[in-house]
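Run log, item B.
One chain of 331 residues. Sequence copied directly from the ordering sheet:
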Amino acid sequence: MRILLYTNYLLVVGLFFSCGERKTPNDTERNEPEAMERPRLTADQIELTKDFSYNEYTLEDQYAYEDTIRVFQWDKIKEQLAIIENFQQDHKRYAVLQNYNNSNGEAPEVANAVTDDHDRLADTLGTQRYQSVPMYAPGHGDVPLIYGRDGSPVELLGDDTTALVTVAGPSFEGRWEVPRKYVKKLDDSVVFNHVVIVDVTNQNIATLERSSEGAWRIRSMNPATSGKHDPPYAMETPLGIFVVQEKKPKMLYTEDGSEVIKGYAPHASRFSNGGYVHGVPTDDPDGEIIEHSPTLGTVPRSHMCVRTATSHAKFIYDWAETLHALVVVIE
């Protein structure tokens, strides 16, 4: 099953003329079109090379788990890298959708809203209203149609100073208008060359880094444990492409259904809503750091987060720069 909808961008490059007399289309010395469509990369064109920067608890491409075989889905990973490469073709203005803990205001109710099994309002695609961003069809800014997830990278289209900003992105199809307060512009120098891939089916995690030559180097291949669907508190890790938005050396968490601090997770990198990539949690706010757990790479058991070995989480924490790296969750 695909987790992302492909966007229909027309990628063009400008027509440049040398200094001096401008040639016309009828000039036999120069007869170029005004613009040409830039070819889109396919998964087959993505080159992967193993070049580990972190090599503890490393998994093979295929490995046994109980009575099954688990894998790193390299074909699917290449598809996601091609989407990321195509999203970054040509010079664009990037931003990220943000509404962590409804910090930018609770999103309005969408058309055809439903109540999910966590007893929260959601759109028909299953994205909850809480911590999400309202997305309107262009020219119809009265009622939003869907919610955009916190952490979703987008391209800014047109004027970004108006009340509603037009965006497009790799995690949803088409163009949408979003209230400007939910859109954080990224620096013009941003290039997404660091990508963390989380596979919720095989419960593994890989990091990849794009070289200056265009090849993607696999920096680590490790077991991971993703979020589980267990209402009313635990949620699965959301599928999609997200920006690493913030980091916490010690992410405190509470007891389910209370405000009491239960423990902490080390080296936490937040990518969407309350979802972090982090090390092994410690059920004691003042306890010592735990390096590894036998539950890593088994079955989903987290509350939306992705846990991995603590030293691997520290590697990601140091390697994936805030607002310059992506987390991609596949199934």
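Observations after the first pass:
- Residues 74-87 form the longest helix (14 residues).
- The longest strand covers residues 261-272.
Flagged for discussion on Thursday.
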